Amino acid sequence: MRNLSDAEIIDSINRGNVSDYSLLVSRYKNRAFSLLRRLLKNEMDAEEALQDSFLKAYNSLKGFRKESQFSTWFYRIVYNTGLSIISSQKRKIEQQMSSIDGKFDLASHDNEVYSTADNAQQYILKMVDKLPVRNALVVILFYMDGLSLNEISQVMGTSLVNTKVLLHRSRNALKDLLLKHNYQEEML
Amino acid sequence: MSKLTDEILNRYIDGELDPSELKNLQNELNNDADALARLQALRIVDLSLRSLEVEKTSDVFTEKVMKVLAETRRVAKPRINYFFISIISIFSIGILAVLVAAFRSTENGSGSSTLTPYADRFRELIGKNINSLQSIFADPNVMLVISVFSLILLVTVYFTFEAHKSFTKKLNSILH
Known about the structure:
- The complex is a heterodimer of chains A (188) and B (176).
- Chain A is mainly alpha-helical and 188 residues long.
- Chain A contains 11 helices and no strands.
- Chain A has helices at 6-14, 21-40, 43-59, 70-88, 93-97, 107-116, 120-128, 133-144, 149-156, 160-180, 183-187.
- The model of chain A has no long low-confidence stretch (mean pLDDT 87).
- Chain B is mainly alpha-helical.
- Chain B has helices at 6-13, 19-31, 33-50, 61-76, 82-108, 116-138, 140-175.
- Classes of the chains: A mainly alpha (188), B mainly alpha (176).
- Chain A binds chain B through residues 18-19, 21-22, 25-26, 29-31, 33-34, 37, 46-47, 50-51, 54-55, 58, 120-121, 124-125, 128, 139-140, 142-144, 167-168, 171-172, 174-176, 178-179, 183-184, 187-188, and chain B through 6-7, 10, 13, 37-38, 40-42, 44-58, 61-66, 68-70, 72-73.
């Protein structure tokens, strides 16, 4: 059986085939979970937020305009659900999110991560978790979900320029750490 | 200082440089060991990030969501009060039947219908009382009292309905 597109599945659900929603849940659950796990830093909270996001998406499905991709629309719901959980937990959202202009320092985590990483790739992947949340989210949406910078800016409600800045800053920070440990020479 | 900024190198990684910028980059890299090292490091970062693994949620997650969804839909489904509907229907049918019977009896006129004596008695009863009713309602004080009572009744019904609505809403928010 051929894979149905997101739009075809949504049409089917809107025609009354509610069980087809499980196809969308199965398709997006792991990627959205990865995003929420990094945003909330807790698996249980992430799963709860994910369930909430899918229910919200289902309830708003009739209002979904097919001008944009379902993935972009859904990730926006996921992102906002994650943010509202952070704010309801009264964490300092500003600290968690860091401003676009705000510089960040990964050096404080460097020793801990460097001592446990076997190679450059492992080191970088572990360091992604130490990036400020917004930077980490841009990296995940760009590399893991394959979203374009334009789509990411729609998900996060940031301008295209700021989204690009977040991606470049994240890569530059990781690049500087690689250079510090001379990993680039090891890889040659 | 190197002409090749991190910005240019990032744009190269993303394939955003035009042919003339690409040529310039190649020329600069031949004479700039620092920029070359930075580019190599950026390439490693880019390649490594491409191998970011998707984390898996629990195996039963989809079933769990579908179950919650089914429950939500069941609760959200408007409940039909069949008792209320049947009472209203019986009354409506009764009133309709009386009207039809009265209409037929006046149409026949001859009194052939078995319902005619009842219709006549009903008319007689109304006729007797209609004058006294008219005199009561002609009094402006009575009309004022009735109006005030009607207003109080309407306001009470409205607030009772609103209170019931907000209570149901609160109950639903607690349950979900």
